[in-house]
Amino acid sequence: MSVYINDICINCGACIDECPVEAIVDEDDNPTGEEVYYVYADKCVECVGHHDEPACATACPTEGCITWDEIKESPSHREDVTAEMRSSKANVIN
Q: Which of 13, 26, 41, 94 falls 20 to 30 Å from 83 in CA-CA distance?
């Protein structure tokens, strides 16, 4: 899981300074080339083990700018979806 910074971000930098794992970069270092702050999902830990909620969201002055999914028990997987179907990333129709 990781946090997501949406388009109401005012680019103040508060989230970058508070991230304990340095998962957030500004628009200059955004690998997508977009002029928005970017969260490396593979680095973001949602502050589990660091804080009660993501530190970036606590520091952010713009309400609702940073969203995240709390870590929950993994859902069970459908038995009829094969590994090949999952790796193709194509839509699976019921």
A: 41
Dist. CA 51–CA 87, nearest whole Å: 34
Which domains does the chain possess?
A: 1-71 (3.30.70.20)
Distances (CA, A) of 21 to 3, 8, 25, 47, 56: 12, 23, 11, 8, 11
Q: Which residue has the tokens 């028990």?
A: 73
The pTM of this model reads 0.68
Nearest to 54 by CA among 26, 23, 28: 23
Query: Rounded to 5, what percent of the chain is helix, strand, coil?
Result: 20, 10, 70
